[in-house]
């Protein structure tokens, strides 16, 4: 028996969104819009950058902290780089923070503090690619742009039963999203697709009975929605080795230094480590220490990056002299939360000094919005 499917309808999705939208701190919901509230491009852009490779629950506190410290794009543009990197620490994918600052500076200096209102204009800004340009254009400026994050990929792949594996399927998916995106309320449509993927069309056990597209979904008609999206076989992540050196002086200060601006964890604060990268191992022994001290082994930590797994041997030294300049500085352990320490460095310090972050939770990255190459 052949099942006749409906044509997918943006109107049915928008009707569902009007009733079931998520209330998010950066979002102008349908009730708010009906009262005349307009989207703030700065908030939309900030949230979209934060949400790349990170979940909504993890982003909310960071979003609130950034808005409190830097309420406008001009405020962020004027902020010291170190302050921005420190505020970002824990969100991961630190190229985003560097590009965030550069983009804010460009908007302030070249556009009078106003974001361009088209995809093409937005793509000229540092750190803004196709996805972010489409999202900001649609949500902030109501442009008819095809917005496709991981949630939208899942919805559209099931709706049309797209069997081509990702990432090769992305151009076809984007074409389908573009055809479905309405001229009226394109920003709400984009957010509705995201909400649908996040709450109904989930990776496992999608609640198809509640989906506004269930009469048009080809994957549901084939009784196999969880098959989609089809993904290419994952390659095993290489395992890299390295060492980290945690030195403490008699004043209870820890030796820190700043990484170079470019590359992996660029511009972030670290304890001294060896020259590991995504492609090569670093030294793991005491002979690689940054300066002489009574170094003792303090175990190992593991941290998973996008493209590789890192295993760090941790070395600890106490009562270290602070008279010599080693291209770094001594920071009180009680001030560590104010430093731009990425999660892997927090792990290394906590391994060597178990109580260093007694009052803080070391956050983990989770979820996925867009893939990135610079961490």
From TrEMBL:
One of its GO terms (molecular function) is metal ion binding. Its cofactor is [4Fe-4S] cluster. InterPro entries: A/G_AdeGlyc_MutY (IPR005760), DNA_glycosylase (IPR011257), Endonuclease-III-like_CS2 (IPR004036), HhH-GPD_domain (IPR003265), HhH_base_excis_C (IPR023170), MIG/MutY (IPR044298), MutY_C (IPR029119), NUDIX_hydrolase-like_dom_sf (IPR015797). CDD domains: ENDO3c (cd00056), NUDIX_DNA_Glycosylase_C-MutY (cd03431). Its EC number is 3.2.2.31. It is an enzyme of class 3 (hydrolase). It comes from the Bacteria. It catalyses: Hydrolyzes free adenine bases from 7,8-dihydro-8-oxoguanine:adenine mismatched double-stranded DNA, leaving an apurinic site. PROSITE patterns: ENDONUCLEASE_III_2. Keywords: 4Fe-4S, DNA damage, DNA repair, Glycosidase, Hydrolase, Iron, Iron-sulfur, Metal-binding. Residues 50-199 form the HhH-GPD domain. Signal peptide: none annotated. Binds 1 [4Fe-4S] cluster. The keyword Iron applies. Pfam families: HhH-GPD (PF00730), NUDIX_4 (PF14815). One of its GO terms (biological process) is base-excision repair. The keyword Iron-sulfur applies. Adenine glycosylase active on G-A mispairs. MutY also corrects error-prone DNA synthesis past GO lesions which are due to the oxidatively damaged form of guanine: 7,8-dihydro-8-oxoguanine (8-oxo-dGTP). Belongs to the Nth/MutY family. This is Adenine DNA glycosylase.
